[in-house]
Amino acid sequence: MSGVHQFVPMFHRRDAVGEHTRAVRDLLVARGVASRIYTELPDPETADETRPYRAYEADAAPGDVLVYQVATRSGVAGWLTTRSEPLVLNYHSITPPAYFAPWSNGITRLQVGAGLELADLAPRAALGIGVSAFDAEELRRAGCRTVRVIPVANLAGPPTAPDPGALARLADRHAGAGPWWLSVGRLAPNKAHQVTLAALFVARVTGSPGTRLTVVGSPTVPAYAEALRRYAGALGLADAVTFTSRLGPGELAAEYASADVLVMLSDHEGFGVPLLEAMGHGLPVVAYDAGAVAEVLDGAGVLLTEKGPRHVAHAVTALVADAGRRRALAEAGRRRLAGLGLDRAGDRLAAAVLAVRDGAPVPD
Amino acid sequence: MPTPPAATPPETAADGSAAPPQGAADGVDYLDQVMAEIDAEVRRRRASGDLPAGLERELDELFLEFSPVGLQGRARLRETLALVDGAAYVDIAVPVASEKPIGTYVKRLLRTGLGWYLRYIVDQVVKFAWAVSRMLHVVVDHVEELEAAVESTRSPDLPVEVARTGEPATDWWRPVAIEALAGVAGRVVHGDCGDGSLVAALVAAGVDAYGVDPSEPALAAALDDGLDVRAEPVLDHLEVVADEALGGLVLSGSVQWLRPNERQRLVDLAASRLTPGGVLVLHSATPASWAAGAPTLVRDLAPGRPLHAGTWAFLLAGRGFSVAAPLTGGPDRTLARVGASTPDADTVNAAIDAINELLLGPGAYLLVATRER
What we know:
The structure holds two protein chains of two kinds. Chain A is an alpha/beta fold. Chain A folds into two domains: 4-151 and 342-358, Glycogen Phosphorylase B (Rossmann fold), CATH 3.40.50; 164-339, Glycogen Phosphorylase B (Rossmann fold), CATH 3.40.50. Chain A has 14 helices and 13 strands. In chain A, strands 3-2-1-4-5-6-7 form a seven-stranded parallel beta sheet, sandwiched between helices. Chain B has two domains: 88-152, no CATH class; 160-371, Rossmann fold (3-Layer(aba) Sandwich). Chain B is elongated. Chain B starts with 10 loop residues before the first helix and ends with a strand.
């Protein structure tokens, strides 16, 4: 029986690409389409859901379509170039290697390799799916002839409810403190967390001395994460900044529910899941206009075209102080979230992939 | 750590002119009072956003201190290259020391056994690394040659005090500037404000005006008059002003002879910092009067030259300004035409007209531009 099978370097739980891959598989299976997930490296937590990608050679059936979830370099990519099945690239953005070059040779090489692999695969792909128009444009530049924009499939539905225990702990911590900023994103150089720290410093010395910041993100680039901690210390912010990672969905939801504003100053964002999470929790957003940020926000947040610490501090402080504007932005965020069509994303993706299988025109 | 604005204690506390009372209770009250005044000053400064202009640069540099060496702004090419050279050699003589005698023996055996293989790989790695290192040396040599060539063409900086002597000496344009700025919404800043006389006149006209000037001594009179003036070049100041934060901007003085890249940056900053409907007033010597009348030191050392009014108008219009026709004034050395009775009057007058147009005529102009909404 032919099917639509997905390939992903690793398949993790609580990981944006992993959860998206699972959602796509479930949608396809629900439509009666055979769909398996193949990985390069097994994750013990999900090993019972996946098969090694080489095993596909024995599983292959005529009429199969292969979907590759592109996010980093992987041995899967080179192998896919040897396959004759129709290929769909589901692109989740590759951070340009230049951001990592000063910090980590290893990650830089990975990103360079990922870019080369994309350039190799894109012209062979029957369809490229970008999660944003920004990513779709990268796919076109890489050589994809047919490209569609379909957001990730796992963000439909109401936001995760905050974990009551975490909520109570945060309420204790925030009690009596000033405004609380939240920044969510891997501790990687393209996320530019140092600018958030500098803006926090400026905010604290220019009228909002009680301002605090929580940075939620795993230290993807350890040297950068260490530099951030030392920078915070040198700015006298050690007690004002909390770095945290590996939060469960309820704990992360509690962070969104407890903060006053999400500050996102990334230099490169292919989509920006935290923007959607903040909108879902009614948290107003101040973000720098990079990559897909403007497209995702679409006016439902404060979009900065300049991110000097003074500008950021001024923008965030002004927003936090204006309850009416915060309410209006929270409402705009909810409307934008509804307008993104996340509830239809899975159906659209399944329809696009099945059109490739059937040799039909790919719907917009 | 960058220094936040230091709280300046009130004069009574700082200069000791008001001695604290003697009694213990009174001493405590006095201390409380001083602390309250310091707190009030800190709050005022925090609220005003009165931070040093170089703060953002300081913050950037501080972060770079924690970054890998390649990012550090202060790292020199040669120093960084030395790191490359040092890392370009890969040593295959693996240390064999061990806490256990047998460990040393085993490690030595492994080293000997694997040596042929590692040497083959390492030779290629080292060849590549040294080729890269040699290429970087060539690049650095070229960069240093270029730096030296650029440096050889650089003129000494024009001292700001000397630069001031190159400004047109008249203030014919000030009433026009005040009229243009009266009633604008938001603060008005005068770049190169000098003694602050225009700032004072604007304030007297009900405009919320302040000034910046690169020369601290030039500001002494303005400070004595209690005006809000700051010792900063106008470009540095505008860099740290929030977008659309200004209602008006007056440019005069050294704006006339900015470098081309600085001039473009100034226009860009003016466009972004002025609120829609905000007014920009620009006063400059004409190129002809500057060439004829500015001190030789200014003419020789100034990094740029004054532009014609039409050129400024073109630059400003390109950044969304609506520019009114320029007004001219200032020292006017126009030669009078000769009477018809003068021999060869037509020829002489044609020559006078040409000289007036090229070299004489009004010495300065004023442009009033409005940022379009």
